[in-house]
Amino acid sequence: MAIPIIHDWRKYYITRHEGMGSSYERIILNRKLHFIQKHYQIRTVIETPSFGFTGISGINSMNLAKNACQVTLEDHDPERLKLIHEIWNEVGLPVTTRSNGDYSALDHPDKSFDLAWNFSALWFVSSLPAFLSELSRITSKVILLCIPNQMGWGFRMQMKDADPASLQDIHIENLSQPLICRTMQGLGWKLVETDYIDCPPWPDIGTSKEEFLMRHDWLRAILSPFVTIRKNTEGSGDANGPPLSLSILKYYNGSDPSFPDRMLRHSWFERIVPSLVKRFWAHHRYLLFTPDPDDQSFAMTSEIHP
After folding, report:
1. Phi then psi dihedrals of residue 84, to 5 deg
2. In terms of C-beta density within 10 A (0-12 exposed, 13-18 middle, 19 or more buried), how is residue 60 classed?
3. What count of Cα atoms within 13 Å lies in the side-chain half-sphere of residue 306?
4. 221 vs 6, 207, 227, 228, 280, CA distance in Å?
């Protein structure tokens, strides 16, 4: 989660450099989405809102499109929506985009999509009950909601240091897990799984991990045996030179097939640390809902860890 992205999101469409944090986050998220897709035989997907607190907006569903899903995205900013559409065309993947001012209404027929989801995006929904009601109406199989881990050290530090003016257009109250679960239960949906996700060795920060660790000697000393700290984030070339572009787009367009494997080298921490540690370190958590009150299959078989 990076609060500055509310205002500086345009730069990611220009530089295409997302850094290690967003790159790792996307691969971990892809693995979860792929498992959901296979388990529930997902064919149609809507991601709304598609603008979350991470790098290049609007590309979190690209891997689902690569796996033959029909993807629809919604965004409330016309300029960003245009850039999203262009970047999907650039990598050669089909997508349908829609503009939605406040997400109180979703202009789609009942049960139009097998899967509805969003990632760190509920802050931009003006009315959470109205949005979840609409999301329930247009979805037939699964709803996945990923929210920032509000107990996480990184989240608390970012909120503490944030300029109040930068938060005036977002609804932090929408991130309440009890509120989300109560609302979804009232709409006839059952929570079948929840867990922490996106828990790398570095904290949830609003800048590159290299810049952050170079400013915090105590944390750099702890993490340096486990996390590469260099300007060149790809780990090759001149370490004293400018950072190379690090973006999952190269994987999506087929020019960097080893990208997931490189990101997953950092997943050891997420695999081994107990839930108590994740409670204060993980960057996000997810809530998975289905309309079937007897559905226990996903919780029993899901690969919780990457």
Report:
1. -60, -50
2. buried
3. 27
4. 31, 19, 10, 12, 20
User: What letter represents residue 147's amino acid?
Assistant: I
Domains recognised in the chain with CATH numbers: 5-203+270-301 (3.40.50.150)
Q: Is 144 within 8 Å of 35 (Cβ atoms)? A: no
Q: Which two tokens stand for residue 120?
A: 């760190």
**Residue 151: which region, alpha, beta or left (left: phi > 0; alpha: psi -120 to 50)?**
alpha
Taking only the tens place, the pLDDT of each residue in 52-81 is: 888 899 999 999 999 999 999 999 999 999
Q: 280: which 2 tokens?
A: 């204060």
Say if residue 160 is exposed, middle or buried (CB neighbours under 10 Å; 0-12, 13-18, 19+).
Answer: exposed
Tokens of 246: 């690090």
Closest by CA position to 141, among listed 302, 303, 298: 298
Using CA atoms, how far apart are residues 149 and 204, in angstroms rounded to an integer?
9
Token look-up 């009942």 returns 110
Please state, in angstroms and rounded to a whole number, the distance separating the CA atoms of residues 147 and 159.
Answer: 15
Q: Give the tens place of pLDDT for each residue, 251-294.
A: 999 999 999 999 999 999 999 999 999 999 999 999 999 997 77
Q: In the numeric block, which tokens belong to residue 89?
A: 């065309």
Name the phi and psi angles at 101, rounded to 5. Answer: -65, -45
User: The tokens of 233 are what?
Assistant: 């984030």
**Secondary element (H or E) of residue 52:** none
pTM higher than the cut 0.85: yes
Residue 217 CB-density burial (10 A; 0-12 exposed, 13-18 middle, 19+ buried):
exposed
234 — pLDDT class (breaks 50, 70, 90): very low
b/e code 274-283 from CB counts within 10 Å (16+ = b): eeeebeebbb
- Residue 45, both tokens: 């997907």
Distance of CA 160 to the CA centre of its chain: 22
Pairing of strands 70-75, 44-47: parallel
Predicted pLDDT of residue 238: 38
